[in-house]
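Lab notebook: predicted structure, single chain.

Context: the supervisor wants predicted structures on file for every construct in the current expression panel, including those that have not yet been purified. This is the next one on the list. No modifications to the sequence; it matches the entry in the shared construct table.
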Amino acid sequence: MYDEDRAGWSGQPTGDRVPTPVASHPRPRESMVSSLNARFPSLFRCVVVLLGASVCGSFAAAQYPEIELTWVRPTVAQIGTEVELTAGGGAHLEQVDRLVFSDPRITAELVTQPGEGEGAEPVPQWGRFRVTIPADLPAGRYDVRAVGAYGISNPRILTVTAHPVVTAAAIGQSAGSPTQLELPAGPDSGWVLENRATAARVDYFLIPAAASEPRRVSLLAQRIDSRMIGQLKLYDSTGKLLRSVRGSDGFDPGLTLPAAPDGHFIVGVQDFLLRGGDPFFYQLRVDADDHEPSAGTPEPGEGEASVDRSGLTPHPQGLDAITLGDALHDIISPAPAAAAEAPNHPVVIEPPCLVASHFTLPRLGLSEGQVAFQFAATAGQKWEIEIISQRLEQPTDPNLRIQRQDTDAEGNPKWVDVATADESAMVGDFAMRLRVKDPITVFTAPADGNYRLLLRNLDTGSELASEPEFWVRIREPEPDFRLVAMYPFPHNDPATTRPRGAQLFAGGTRSIRVLAFRRGGFDGPIELSVAGLPEGMPIPTAVIGANQTEAHLTLTAPETPASWTGQLQVIGKGTTEAGELEREAAPATVIWGRGDLRDIVTTRLTSDLSLSMSDQMTAPVTITLGGDEPAQVKPGTNLNVPVRVTRRDGGGNPIVLRPRNLPPGVTVAEVTIPADQSEGTIELKVAADAKLGKYSPWLLAETKVTFKPVTADASELTVFIPTNTANLELVDSP
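Prediction complete. Output recorded below exactly as produced.
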C-alpha cells in the first residue's frame, strides 16, 4: 500500500486514516525509483530517456560563463524586518556582491567577516546579504537578481508578507508526530512558514482550528519559482483523511480548514512527484478564508490599493497574460451564480461587456453542465468574444460554442451551432512559447436574432481547485498587438534552454527574442527598437514581418566597454487605419529548464529586462551580417549577402553559420567559414510567391574559442554567437 508518511509504498493497508509511521531511516534509492515507476510507469520511462539525452547534451558544449541563480533563501520576509539572505545554486556565482530588487526600497548589504591580523580588510562573504524590508512596502512578490563577476542573474522571487514568518527546529515527517509550530497569539492569526520538500517524504504540520471562522491553507510553490508541484492532504484530529488537493505546472493548491472550537487539524505537504531538495522550496500560509484572492487580483488581500505597488512581480505571470491588455482594469459585472447551473436559461448580457462567473465543480471526473450567456445581434455585426480564465492562473481549459436561436419544423425553439473556439495557435517554440488556451474569436452574426455562448471547462481534474473563475469579454474588434521579450539561451537546440543571466563584454553580442501576439485582425509589420542602453552603444532595430510572429534584436558591445548594469525596454510600433500603435514588450525569463521529471521549459513574466556589461573580458569572435545599406531582392531571384568575421585572441577556428528568422519562401543553406578566413557569403534563394515586405533575418554561429574568464584560466569552449539582424526587403523591382 502507499505509505503517506514516506510518500511511498508499504506492505500494510491504511484505509482512509493516517497510516502508522514506519521506520525513519532514509529510503534506498532503488526503492524510491521502484515507487516512482509503479505510480507513473509511462511517464517515468519517457522522462528518464529524455532527460538522459538532455543532460548529456548540456555537458557536450560549454558556453561563455554567465551567472545562473537557482534559489534565494529565505524566500519570504515580513514587512519591517531585516533578514540574512543567501543567493545560491546555479552556476558562475563567483564574487556575487550585490542584489538588485524590482523595488529599490528593498536594500541589501553584503555580509563581511573580520580579516585576519591587525588592520586587515573585512573578508566579503560572497552571496550573503543583510536585506532590509521597509515598513511601508506593500505585501507581494518581488524579483531579486544577483550581480557578480559574470553579470546580472536571472530573477528569483522574494515574497514580502504582513504575516509573521514562523520557523521550526525540525520538521515532523511522521503523521504520528507532526510539526508543532510556535504560532502567533490567537488561533485566528495568520502566519507563513518556509521549507523544502524532501524526496519521498511528507512534511506534517499540526494546525489549530479557528473557533468561529474557516481558515485558508495555501501552499505556494509554483508562484514563487519553485520546481515543486505541491500536494496538500488534510486530516482531522483523529487522523481521518478529509481532503486531498494538488497543484500542477503553473498552479498551487489550497484548502479550507473548517471552524472547530478546541480542535486541530493535521496538514501533510509533499511534492506530487515525490521529489525534493533545494529547488523544491515551498511556503505554507494560513490566514482567514476570505484572504483567498479572486482571479486577477494582484496579491492575496494584503496592503491597500493606494500604495505604490510598481515594483511587484507581474501577476498573473504566465506569458499569455500579455494578451489581457486592459482587461484587468475594466469594470466587471458579476453574473448570477445560477449561470453556472442552468445553461438552458442563459444569463442575458448586452455587449460590449465584461462579466464574471465560475465553472461548477466536476463530479466523477466529468464536467458538470455548461455555462450559458445570451445576447442579441444584427446581421453582419462583428464582436470579439474572449474568455479569460487560464490567463488568470485558474486551472481550466475553456471551450466555447456560439449558437443561434432558431425554430424546428414544428415551430419549437432550438439552438443551432454557428461557431466554435478553443485555444489559439502557439507562437514560439519549446524554449519560449506563447499559447493562449482561453478562446478568443472574432464573430460575425450571420443573421438578426439571439445568440448563446456555451462554455465548458475541459479540465476536470478532481484534485484541482474547485469552481475556478472565468470572465467573458465582448467588444468591437480592434486591430492590435502585444509583445513579450526574453534573452534566449545561446544554443542551437531550444530544448537545452535553462535559466541564465545577461552579460556583454568587449566585442560580444547578446540577442533579445521578441514574440508578437496579433489580435483583432492586425496583420501589419512591427518595427522593434531598444531603449535604456548605455551611451555610446549602438541601438539595434528589427522588424517582425507582416506574416511573422517573432524577431530578434542583437545587442553588440563596443571594443572598449565601460562596466555597466541597467534595465532595457523593447518598443514595438505598428500602423492601423486608426493610426500608429506603440507597445512596450513585457519582459520574461526562464524559470527552469528540462529535468527533475519535467520535460518542459518553464517561463514567466518578470519585472524588467536587466543587462550588465563587463570591461574585464573580451569576445574572441564577432560576426557581422550584411552591409551598411538595406538589402533588396525581388521574389523569384537570389541574393548574396556578405558576412564579416572579426577574430581576436582565441578565435581562430572554423565557424558554422545557420540561418534564423527567414521570411516565408526564403531559404539559406548552412555555411562554414574556414579557420584561415574572415569573410564569407550566404545566398538567399527567394521563391516567386514570397510576400513583399521588410524582414530581419540573422545567423547563429557555432565555433570553438579559447576564452579567458575573470576568475579562472583560459579554456576551450564551444559557443553559439548571434550575428546582427540584416535589413532585408522583398520588393517588386530592386
